[in-house]
Amino acid sequence: MIRPIHILVIAALAAFPAAAQDGPKGIAFVQAPEQGSGVCMGATPEEGFACAVAQCMETGARDEDCIRTNWCQPAGWSVDIFVQHQEGLHWHEVICGLPSEQIAQNAADATCDPEARDYVIECSVVQIYDPEGNETR
User: Fold this and answer.
1) Structural domains in the chain (count)
2) Which residues lie below 8 Å from residue 58, measured CB to CB, with a gap of 6+?
3) Domain around 53
4) Is 87 domain-assigned?
5) Per the domain annotation, does 12 fall within a domain?
6) Which residue, of 20, 26, 33, 109, has the fewest CB within 10 Å?
7) 0.85 cut: is pTM over it?
């Protein structure tokens, strides 16, 4: 049996909007080969990727060209690394969700180790992002 007090409590709770989830933000990375890229923070992957794709499209790429490559939540420290194969192909490798800037740099150094990847003729850090998505270089 529902008592009048229960009805009042239910009515009072229904009157207030649900509290927004205020968890850690994530970071989304998008690439359009040979055209552009996008990097955005978001509360959800959908939000982050939508923003990153919009940035990517600002460079002239089409939505379908903007490939969703990485999502980390919490964002942590992230590093974007340019890599070029000896045959001329090149691409970006992103590592995100790292605990510190130094570890992001160490990850880039390991990724670019010429002994581990003797087919790579160029490998370098493009950008390091802090946990709020700010560029640090």
Assistant:
1) 1
2) 36, 38
3) 24-129
4) yes
5) no
6) 20
7) no
